[in-house]
């Protein structure tokens, strides 16, 4: 009589423990499937709209429109095979450009200058290491005279056009097929301004300024995903599996200990 009660209580305890373990297991298994959002296909990006709201990039956009280079860039952005990478100087970069001036450039030179600010391929932040290995890189303006050198100084990407040495100061958008990066200076190609180079400032040791995506851009989301991918331990199936096994073990030990305790009493 007494033993059967103990047996029933023990069995009940065990069933209770196992069912809570199963419930927890399901919750743990269930949660990671919610995390990766379904990857959306490449969508159409209107570059005019993008450059009007970010920045301010109005001066650059005006040059793109007056030279019709915006159409070239837009059709490349529409090309989902290759995509496009743009290096866009802020209005302040054009304002601080005193010498050489852009005012006496011919329309062809102005067009080349605009094309010089783009690469006919999509490069994400992660690809910049590759770009520095492959430098010099031919730009959209074509030819070796319109090439850019990239150097990745511990996370800070520097561009060298011969005349201008500048850095990528932020990622405005990095969603395939359109990558837009803000640069600190207007990129002046040797092919237009000659080889009469201004004295090159010594490359100062770059502080730990990682490229910061602007908060309200899709780039922020992308960087988040990249970080998550970089630390697989945090949410990988194996991690949750380990957690679950430990949970089951924990509960089983508790249940068996409880059973023994009751048997002893
Ligand atoms: C892109 O946006 C601009 C400005 O809103 C608009 O004038 C232009 O027609 C748009 N282009 C396309 C292809 O939708
Ligand atoms: C780019 O694609 C959009 C949407 O499909 C289209 O309206 C626009 O005319 C295209 N622009 C160019 C330059 O190909
Ligand atoms: C623009 O003007 C400056 C000074 O007048 C001159 O030195 C320079 O060569 C000109 N540039 C071009 C591309 O004509
Ligand atoms: C990096 O460069 C190598 C060789 O130049 C190429 O095979 C590889 O696909 C590149 N990787 C990326 C991510 O562009
Ligand atoms: C880019 O790098 C190559 C090879 O290191 C060098 O010959 C060339 O002068 C550089 N170009 C510029 C614009 O700095």
TrEMBL record:
<feature type="compositionally biased region" description="Low complexity">
    <location>
        <begin position="226"/>
        <end position="238"/>
    </location>
</feature>
<keyword id="KW-0732">Signal</keyword>
<protein>
    <submittedName>
        <fullName>Fasciclin-like arabinogalactan protein 7</fullName>
    </submittedName>
</protein>
<dbReference type="InterPro" id="IPR000782">
    <property type="entry name" value="FAS1_domain"/>
</dbReference>
<keyword id="KW-0336">GPI-anchor</keyword>
<dbReference type="InterPro" id="IPR036378">
    <property type="entry name" value="FAS1_dom_sf"/>
</dbReference>
<dbReference type="Pfam" id="PF02469">
    <property type="entry name" value="Fasciclin"/>
</dbReference>
<keyword id="KW-1003">Cell membrane</keyword>
<comment type="similarity">
    <text>Belongs to the fasciclin-like AGP family.</text>
</comment>
<keyword id="KW-1133">Transmembrane helix</keyword>
<keyword id="KW-0449">Lipoprotein</keyword>
<dbReference type="InterPro" id="IPR045003">
    <property type="entry name" value="FLA_A"/>
</dbReference>
<keyword id="KW-0472">Membrane</keyword>
<keyword id="KW-0325">Glycoprotein</keyword>
<dbReference type="GO" id="GO:0005886">
    <property type="term" value="C:plasma membrane"/>
</dbReference>
<keyword id="KW-0812">Transmembrane</keyword>
<dbReference type="GO" id="GO:0098552">
    <property type="term" value="C:side of membrane"/>
</dbReference>
<feature type="domain" description="FAS1">
    <location>
        <begin position="44"/>
        <end position="187"/>
    </location>
</feature>
<feature type="signal peptide">
    <location>
        <begin position="1"/>
        <end position="23"/>
    </location>
</feature>
<feature type="transmembrane region" description="Helical">
    <location>
        <begin position="243"/>
        <end position="264"/>
    </location>
</feature>
<comment type="function">
    <text>May be a cell surface adhesion protein.</text>
</comment>
<feature type="region of interest" description="Disordered">
    <location>
        <begin position="198"/>
        <end position="238"/>
    </location>
</feature>
<dbReference type="GO" id="GO:0009834">
    <property type="term" value="P:plant-type secondary cell wall biogenesis"/>
</dbReference>
